[in-house]
Amino acid sequence: MTTLVLDNGAYTAKIGYSHDTVSVIPNCQFRSKTSRLKTFTANQLDEIKDPSGLFYILPFQKGYLVNWDVQRKVWDHLFGKEMYKVDFADTSIVITEPYFNFTSIQESMNEILFEEYQFQAALRINAGSLSAHRYFQENSTELCCVVVDSGFSFTHIVPYCRGKKMKDGICRINVGGKLLTNHLKEIISYRQLHVMDETHVINQVKEDVCYVSQHFYKDMEIAQLKGEENTVMRDYVLPDFSSIKKGFCKPLEEMSFSGKYKTGEQILRLTNERFAVPEMLFHPSDVGIQEMGIPEALVNSISNMPEEMKPHFFKNIVLTGGNTHFPGFRDRLYKDVRSLTPTDFQVSVVQPQNPICYAWEGGQLLAENPDFEEMVVTREDYEENGHFICEEKFDI
Amino acid sequence: MYCKRSAKYSPWMLHRYSLVRSQDPNQRRVLDSATRQRRLNRQLEALEKDNFQDDPHASLPPLIKRLPQFDENNESGKRRKKTRGDHFKQRFRKNFQTLLEEEDLSVSEGPNYLTACAEPSKFPQRHFCAVCGFPSNYTCVSCGARYCCVRCLGTHHETRCLKWTV
Ligand SMILES: Nc1ncnc2c1ncn2[C@@H]1O[C@H](COP(=O)(O)OP(=O)(O)O)[C@@H](O)[C@H]1O
Ligand SMILES: [Mg+2]
Ligand SMILES: [Zn+2]
Ligand SMILES: [Zn+2]
What we know:
Chain A contains 14 helices and 21 strands.
C-alpha cells in the first residue's frame, strides 16, 4: 500500500509518493508557435525549444478547477507510465483543493478519483491544512498558527488552532502570481517593448528581478536617480532561444548606464517595476483592486479570533506559496504586521525552506500519521455511500 | 522577435504635448464616471487573462481536435443512456461564474467564497503615474488617469487617454 501526495495547484502540481521526494510540475498544457500539431502536457514543456509566444491552457479559472478535460490530460500524464506509474488498486491519494471549493467540483473530484482512476482510498483536503499540519509537527508546543498561502490565483490567510481551521478567519485577497506577471507584462509593453504574448518569458523576468521593497517611497526616489546612484535599476537580457536560452540580469559590473550595449541582445530596463509589481500583494488598491493587502488582512483576520488565541496567532505566521519567494517578502510582512499590532504582542513570521512544497511536505507527514487510515475515504466506502461519506469526512 | 514600442521617451513626444496643450482645455472631451469604471473593469479583467495572443492551433484545419471541444450533436435520434462521460461533459461547460451562481451563496449561512473576500483597505488610496509608474500628484481632467509631469501627460494624451476605447 502506497500513498501519492498531490498538491494540485493552479500553476504547478506538487507531486510524489509519501515515501519519496516531491516534484514540481506545470499543471497545464501548452502550445507553441513552432510545433503546429502538438499540444504539450505538463513537463513536456521542456521539449519546447522555442517557448516564445507560448500559449497556456489552464485547468483552473480564478483558482477553481473548471476545465476537467485539461486536468485529466495532465493527471493521465502524471499518473501514467511517463511518470508515477500509479497502481491505483494499491494506492491512496492525498489531494488538495481550494478553500470553499464549489460542491459540484467536489463531486466531480470524487467521481474522477474513485470511478475513473479507481484509487484505493482518497483524502481531499485544503493545501493550507497540510501546511498547518507540517508546522505543528515541527513546532509541537505551539497551539495556533496563521497560514499565508500566496500562489498563482490568489492569496489566502487562514488561522488554524490545534489543527482546526478557523473558518471565520479565512480571508482571500484576489492577487496572485498570475496577476503580477500580467501586470508586469502590461507595463513593460506600454513603456518599452511589446511583450503581451510573452507570459512565459515575463514570468521568468518577474521571478528573476522583482523584490518586495522595505521602504517603498524611498525606493521610488532611488529608482528615479540617474547613473550609478540608481541602485534599483537593472538591465535584463531577454532570451532569444538560440544563443541565449534563458534570460538573466546583466551583472552590475557590466551594466552600462546609457543602456547601450555592443552585443546585440534585447534588453529590458527595469526600475520601479522591480518592486511596484510585488507591491500589489501589499496594496492591491494601487492597481484598483479595492481589497486589503496581506498585512492589513492578516491583522484583520486575527482581530476576529477569540481574545485568548490572538497572541498565539501573531507569533506563528507561516509563509507558503510561490510569491513568498520574492526577496524581502518576509521582512516586509513582519514590519507591516508589527506596526499594525499592539507592542505587547510578540510577532514572528516564519519562512520555510521551501514555501512552494510546504503543503506537500505536510501531506507526506500526514500519510505517515497513525490517524491517516481514519481520515481517508476508501473506494469501498464511496461505492456504498457515495458523495455523502466524502462530505462527512472531508473538511473543504 | 520582441517588437519595440517607441511611444515614450522621445523628444518628439514633448513636441506633441505642446500641440495638445495649445488647445483650449475646455474643449477636451471628459469621460463620465461610468465610462471610467468600465475602463478600470476592463483593465482588471485583462489582468486575469491566461493568454493575450490567439491559440496558435486556432488557424489549423478543423479536422484537428482542439481543446476544450465537446461533441454537441450526439443527442440526435434516440436519446442515449446517460453515461458518465455525458455527465462530465455537462460539467466541463461550466465556467467559474456559472459554478459560483450555482453554489447560490446568497442563502448559505456561515463563511463562504463571497464573504471570505478581503474588505477594502482602511489606508488612503495611493496614486501613481499611469505612464511611468512613479508617485503622481495630478489627475488627467479628461479621463481621470494619474500623471506625474508634463512629459508623461503628453505621452498619456498621445497614447491612451481618450484614444483607449472601452
Ligand atoms: N522565486 C520566485 N519568485 C517570485 N515568484 C515566484 C517564484 N517562484 C514561483 N513564483 C510564483 O509563484 C506562483 C506559483 O506559486 P504556487 O504556490 O506554486 O501556486 P499554486 O499552488 O497556485 O500552483 C507563480 O505565479 C510563480 O510565478
Ligand atoms: Mg497552492
Ligand atoms: Zn510619469
Ligand atoms: Zn487622460
